Amino acid sequence: MKVRAKEISGGDGVDAVYDAVGGTLGETCLRALRDDGQFLVIGFASGAIPKLPANQVLLRNRRVTGVDWGGWAAATLPRTRR
Predict the structure, then answer these.
(1) Which of 17, 34, 42, 60 could connect to 13 by a Cys-Cys bridge, CB 3.0–4.6 Å?
(2) ∠ CA(11), CA(40), CA(34), 5° rounding?
(3) pTM recorded for the entire structure
(4) Each residue's pLDDT tens digit, 19-70
(5) Measured between alpha carbons, how far apart are the two ends of the chain, in Å?
(6) Which residues contact residue 27 at a Cβ distance below 8 angstroms, ignoring those fewer than 6 apart?
(7) For residue 41, which of 1, 59, 51, 12 has the smallest C-alpha distance?
(8) Which backbone phi and psi does 17 adopt, to 5 degrees?
(9) What is the pLDDT, as a whole number, of residue 10?
(10) Which run of H or E residues covers position 23?
């Protein structure tokens, strides 16, 4: 995946990764990011929560963001309906 991400992006890695699978693919997805890229954690369809190396976040200025749209929508229901 990392090699393909570099091919697609022209060598720098991708801007963002949307990961709904988790598991062992989590670290692979994180490593496919360019510097200052964003890793969006959507879910864990594989059943396993990934263990991410913090050095990849720190040294490459990457961001890891949890996205729980269902929880956010429920908490902000009046605004979501509008």
Answers:
(1) 34
(2) 15
(3) 0.80
(4) 999 998 899 999 999 999 999 999 999 999 999 999 999 999 999 999 988 8
(5) 39
(6) 50, 51, 52, 53, 56
(7) 51
(8) -130, 130
(9) 87
(10) none
